[in-house]
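Task 17 of the worksheet. Students: predict the tertiary structure of the chain below and write it out as structure tokens. Keep your answer in the requested format; marks are given for formatting as well as content.
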Amino acid sequence: MIRSDMLATWHAFLSDFPAFADALGMPNRIRLVVDANIVLGDLRWLVVKRKDPEARTTLEEVIAAGTVVVYVPPVLHRDVEKGLRDLSAEEGIPLEQLTAAWGRYRTILHTLDAPPTVSHKQRPHVRDPDDLPYIDLQVAIQASAIYTDDPDLRGMNAPVVGKLVMSSARQYAREASVSFTISVGGAVVCTAGIGLLIAMGHLAAALARRIRSLPESVQLVLLGTGLVILLHPAARAWFNGQLQRLAPPARQAVRTLMPRVVAAMEQATRAANRAEEAWTVVRSGVPANGPLAIQPLRVHVVVACIEARRPLTIDEITNRVRTQGFRAGRAPSASYLRSVLRGHPSLKVTSDGTWTLATA
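Model answer:
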């Protein structure tokens, strides 16, 4: 089976090759702020209830797939560490075991402080002031929602999502991973041209007896070329012409594999349809919120620095901001970008002139 993690690989590949992205589209993804109660629930499951040591929580899987990018405020770390002490007492589990699990888990979270959105005069009237850092962060980076089970956040009219949206995001990641693996594989092979086609023919002849023993992901990438070939009459005619150039054993091997190409195409179509159905549930469950492309530059630069997970030069920030769709892909002026960077409370300049998060 193709793991959902492959989707993150295809997202990175398509980001680097815009021509393929224009033809095939980009995998969907959303930005979420995650509440401490969700993290604690995951840690409880991982340490107390998990039977298969390789099993992952829903949140871990969608993060690995790149379908959900997660942000947390620094206060979450304090909230989780306090909750682990309570969990240790409740379950009779050594605190060290829970702390070790938390140490592994926290590496998948982007931590970022954010300026307050509620004045001190308003705070006494807030339903739960401890939840404000999560709302502040959601507003600062224009995340789609806060993933939480906390009724107080919903009561404060914060945009929230629950487990249905996350399970649908996981279903999307699993199905889209299959459809993109076949589609991207086919597009890459066809774009590479005649030389690769001939090499594939000889490879197919050599592997004719072993093709069924190959990992499914390898089979699907090899067979993905048939997607483009079978969908376009001109491509089919071209392919038939090239096929005649192959040696008889290679030609026969390719013809033998064509039924599997058809099956792969049908599998990709079914997976793409199921992925779209799952993403429809995600879209309907996420509160209305502006896409990143139309957000202010201050939002773009923070997201760029968070997702890079390393200091960035001015040029790197400019390129990332443009890729994120700021001003329809036009680069901001250098003076404007520098003024935003200098004035942002969550960013700092390093000794070598690069920019990074002020908190981590």
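Marker's comment: Strands lie at 30-34, 68-72, 110-111, 145-147, 160-161, 347-349, 355-357. Residues 6-161 form a domain with the Rossmann fold fold (CATH 3.40.50.1010).
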